Amino acid sequence: MDGLIFGVCSLATAIGAAICFRYAYRLRDQPTYRVARWSRALAVVVCFIGSLTAVPVVADVFNRATGVGNGAKLVAHLCAVLFCACLQIMIVDWMYEKPYVSSGVWARVVLVASVVTALTFQFRTANDPGLPFTTDSAHNLPIVAYLLTYLGFLAIAGLEISVLSAGMAVHSWRDRQMAAVGLTLVALGGASCVAYSISKGGYLIAVQVSHPWALGTEQAVSSPLAGVGVLFVVIGLCVTIAGSRRAVVRR
């Protein structure tokens, strides 16, 4: 199932990246919301890389080529973190008054750099080529710690993205309905990210307290949530481009 879900996500994000980069490049000389445009484009690119490396066949090829067991999983997870960070920076540029954009952006950059550093260190400590970095290894404490760090960031970032995007959608609905529709989809994608984190994180915690539910149930729920979240966000970002021709958001 993962192959189908993330294969579709890879195709969607490849198309979305082309659309977003073309738009950002076309308006490269326009200073208004420049950070948001390039952050949106970069978000879709890293999401494409993450989705592609999450496809099992591609992951196997990557791991054999690099000689790093679970290397594709680390790349996919770091891309997910960067994807959320780029979306947060995009929203900062849309919502903050100009004097505060820089500080808002740097706060997110410092946070994501800390998370990436922590995940990389935890990965090096916990990596065992014989154990996957998934809920299948829920009894391995170093892997659980790594996954909870990853899922914790996704939950917080997804919540911020969902709440702020929903607020902008409500604000924009009367005069910029196309942009509002796109922001609503982004909000739904952020909510799916939170649900995904709760599903996986909840299972990992349940295993530690000896009250887990079926692993198959967790996997059947989590993978579709991840796929739906990616598709909602990427489609929503492309829709905001159509709406942004009439100004995406009023400061």
Automatic annotation (TrEMBL):
Keywords: Membrane, Transmembrane, Transmembrane helix. This is Uncharacterized protein. The chain crosses the membrane at residues 6-25, 41-62, 74-96, 105-123, 143-166, 178-199, 219-242.
